[in-house]
Queue: 2 jobs
Job 1
Amino acid sequence: MKLYRTSSGAYVERDGEYYKIPGSPTDASWDALVLHSDLQGYLSQIVDAGETASDFLEAQLLAPIGNQEVWAAGVTYYRSRSARMEESKDAGGGDFYDRVYSAERPELFFKATASRVSGPGSHVRIRKDARWSVPEPELALLINQNGQVIGYTVANDMSSRDIEGENPLYLPQAKVYDRSCALGPCVLIGSQPLPSSTPIHLEIFRDGRSEFSGTTRLTELKRDPVALVEYLFRDNVFPFGSFLLTGTGIVPPDSFRLQSGDDVHITIEPIGTLVNQVRRCDDGR
Ligand code: DO4
Ligand code: MG
């Protein structure tokens, strides 16, 4: 089952049919869903009642987030480790990334509040003081207030490689700014891990032509998602639950720089494709 948030309310989808979830399209009603003690059972009941909705509109999709925080794991794929070491070599930061890749404690960082998150079809941003930005296509976990994984979505962890590369202590500025994160198009409900063969695909279009494409698989993810959640919830309370991005395994070549107008497509089947256009800050928000 897939759970969608739209400007006219939440919908659950199964086998191509959509069912409207009772309640108004507010943050509070989304939070109530995420915090439901038996979300899967509740959604199954709605589907089994058989009252299909004909008013589901893709154009009304919103990021599937209410008051959840967004956190992210870093350097969880070998490709990310190598890219970070390369971009920070002049700053002497390379060793840190190598060490965190193999350390028991993962790198976890705060990524976004809901107000900084873009939904499907809306735009993500390049910071106005960044010269080298990339999208990071990542599997995101949706975790409830009890630290249980209740679903999966697609995420874009927009990153300014020049800012982080100048000094690893600039990580929050490289990572956290207005519209630096996108989530969607839906949450695939379920607590079972996705198969390790699951591909994550990134394609970036410029002027309608494919400028970069790459694929990785969850088998390349070095960390167990459940272990990442355990670290996140260790001595931390999330009254509304949290998203946790699991890291990128796709980094375009160092010559690649994201530009205003680029279209970023990130696909993780069986969740779907998250599409966002890129803008620079000076283009307006
Ligand atoms: O260490 C910096 C963050 C890296 C990251 O976001 C990733 O590996 O996905
Ligand atoms: Mg990342």
Job 2
Amino acid sequence: MSDPRSSDAHADVERVLVSAEAIAARVDELAAALRRDLAAAGAGDEGIVLMPVMTGSMLFVADLVRRLPQKLRLELAMVSSYPGTATTSRGPRLALPVPQGLAGRHVVLVDDILDSGQTLRFLRGEVLRQQPASLRAVVLLRKPSRAPADLPCEHVGFEIPDEFVVGYGLDFDGLYRNLPFVGVLRSPRR
Ligand code: IMP
Ligand code: MG
């Protein structure tokens, strides 16, 4: 980092891209849209499974589920694509097996960001093989210049430029997940 002595994650941020207030307002809207969607799909009777992609979507899913009044289950997908200080995806790698028992369930994949789309494409395939009653995905952020056009993603919080971002769950080398906003780090990162 530019100042390796700083112990304050905020000090390494060059600029805030999405404020905590904007995130909160948008999560309200995403939750409302999801409620409508799930109701329209006939989801009920405990059939809803939210599958957050760990670790990045931890903060997002925590805020999202508290705005969903339906009975639902949380099943974690443990995927990592950015080992260590890498800032380009090395492709999704499973840290734990994909949750099973999704047949007949209404599954909602929850991720922090849709970048190359490899993570979402992989998980969609894994879930669809189990024949869920329905499948949708919600991501907080999308880099439209990178996300493949053929990959469905039903709900997107914010479209952002193709920059490496941290905060609100997103990390660089495991750090900065605790920032309450999404921002860009000061360079150089290494
Ligand atoms: P994809 O498979 O390329 O779509 O990448 C998705 C995963 O890469 C996300 O779940 C994030 O964990 C991570 N990722 C992608 N872009 C960023 C970024 O700008 N900052 C931090 N992590 C990112
Ligand atoms: Mg991730």
